[in-house]
Structures are given as structure tokens and as C-alpha cells.
Amino acid sequence: RSSYSCCYFVLPCCFFDFHGKYSRRQCKKTQYREYLDFVAQVGFVCGFHVEEDCLRIPSTKRVSFVGKSRTYPAAERALVDEQIIQFINSRRTCAVATCDRRLGFNHEHHSGGLCKEAGSEPPEDETETAGTIWMPGFQPRGKVEQVRNCASLPRDFVDEVVLNVANLLLNAAPQKSCSDKQGGNMNTWNQGESLSLREVAEHLDKEVLKKLKSEYGGLQTLLKNNHQVFEVLNGRVHIRDWRKEKPPSKTKPEVKRRLSAEAFKTRLCWFFIHHPDGCSLPSEACPYAHGTEELR
User: Fold this and answer.
1) Best label site of 30, 118, 202, 254, fewest CB within 10 Å?
2) How far is 1 from 132, CA to CA, in rounded Å?
3) What are the Cα distances from residue 171, in Å, to 191, 236, 275?
4) Shortest CA distance to 107 belongs to which of 116, 98, 99?
């Protein structure tokens, strides 16, 4: 409804209607297929020639819809917009009926609650401005969406936090001498201790924590992003021990195994550079480069 020249692409995933969770109506179809048909119907009601496609992605929800052209001339835009408003209101009526069945609400005896707000009769202010707004309270997404998963943080900042947290875990464990720092000796390699996320946060600078709090997931997300160094399980942070990682599956097709092997050594090994005992794996077994000469 933003403009007549608008085109759209949508990849339906979670089962939601305009006013809440989508309620099934046809038991002869799977829930996914029924919801896909509903999303396609929305496109048709909005006056699009709706095309269906299946994406080549590793997901069970792969069916997408594309609307590239309209089914009506631009002169009939106002008429179609009225049809869209009626369709939205009809879905609201369905949502109320479902809520009544589930919660046993009686509109004559209950004056509050979600169901009354989503009543079949649109409010007066909505009726007056239905042609100029999308829905009451609707806020379109901004043109620029800020990335807040710690991926856009400065590399120097991330490296410093990773090093500080790793040293904190390593120093929490009793120090052990290592006769062969690059040999991966099982008995002497310092695995460090595990600490809770709260304990780790208590040892970090306040300015660092303030910067992380502006990101989704904060400290936990940053540590999980650095999969090579850390393992975060049940709210506790561990130094990752690559000796315990499962080797690549031998059941993979030969082509995939070969591609996987060729992808090795594209990044330097953090443990080889920073860990006091070096890497726990020998160079030929480590998926990361022990020195720039091994980078591919």
C-alpha cells in the first residue's frame, strides 16, 4: 500500500495474522501449506500477480512469494485500497472469534482486554483515517536497519575483549608448565576454568560493558561470535578445546569433503598466537593457520 509502483518479496516463516497468531481453518492441508495460501491471498487482495518460488536454502521454510506487477490500473487504486481495509477488518473479526473460543470472553460482560481492542467494529478514529494510514499504531521499518549483533563493532575492540576474557579464564586455573608449546600435550595444555557470564562481566571495564549493552545479546553474543576461542554453555564461558571437537563426517560425499579441506587455513589460529601453551592441536590437524605461511 506504500505506492502503486511497489514490488515485494516475502519468505513466510512464523504463523501470524494481522492481529496475532494465525488460526487454522482447513484440516486437509498442512499448517505450512495453509499459511502459505493465506500469505498468497494477501498478495492477491492487494492487487498483485503473485508468483511462488522455492529458494535453494538450508531451511524447511523455503517457499517464497514475489509480487512484481499489479492486476489493476493505477486509476483504481482508491477502490482496491478500500478492499484492502475491508480484508484487514475481516481478519480482525476472525481473530476476535478465535480469542472468544479459546478464552471464553463475553463482550457484553468484559470491558477490557486484548479481544475488546481487536473488536469487529473499527474505532471511530480508524474509520475516519482509514484511507490515510496503514493500521492504528503501525510504524514502518526504517530505510537503514542498524546491525546490532556485535558484527559491526570495531575489530580492535572485539580482539581486546576476547583477549581479556581468555586471560581471565586462563589465569583462573592453576598454572602448568608445558615442555612442548606447539605439540598439543594433553597433560600440560592449560584449558582454563569456566566462569559465568556475570563473573566475566564483573571483571570487564564499565565502558566496555556499556558499549556491549547497546548490542543484542551483549557480551554473550560477542563471545559466541568468536567460536574459535570460546564455548558458551548454560550461561558459562569455557575456553574451546579443539581436541574434543568432532572430526569432519566421513559420510560426506567426496566433493564436499574435498571442498571442506580446501577451505582450511583461511584464518590465523588464535591459540597459536595468544595462548601461553600454544595450540592444543598440531599444525596438520588444526583448521586454522599456525603462521602466515600456512594461510590459503
Assistant:
1) 254
2) 10
3) 10, 16, 11
4) 116
Return the percentage of the chain with pLDDT > 70, whole number. Answer: 72
d(Cα 29, Cα 112) in Å, to the nearest integer?
35
Count of other CB atoms within 10 angstroms of residue 253: 8
CA dihedral defined by 159, 162, 164, 169, rounded to 10 degrees? -160
**Helices vs strands, H then E, count in the chain:** 10, 6
Contact at 8 Å (CB) between 14 and 31? no
Domain ranges of the chain: 8-96, 150-171+191-294
Say what the pTM is.
0.52
**173 contact partners, CB below 8 Å, separation of at least 6:** 190, 191, 192, 193
- Mean pLDDT for the stretch of residues 184-212: 86
Q: Count Cβ atoms within 10 A of the Cβ of residue 205 and give its class: 0-12 exposed, 13-18 middle, 19 or more buried.
A: exposed
Which of the residue ranges 73-82, 137-146, 213-222, 240-249 has the most confident prediction, judged by mean pLDDT? Answer: 73-82
CA–CA gap between residue 28 and residue 35 (Å, rounded): 13
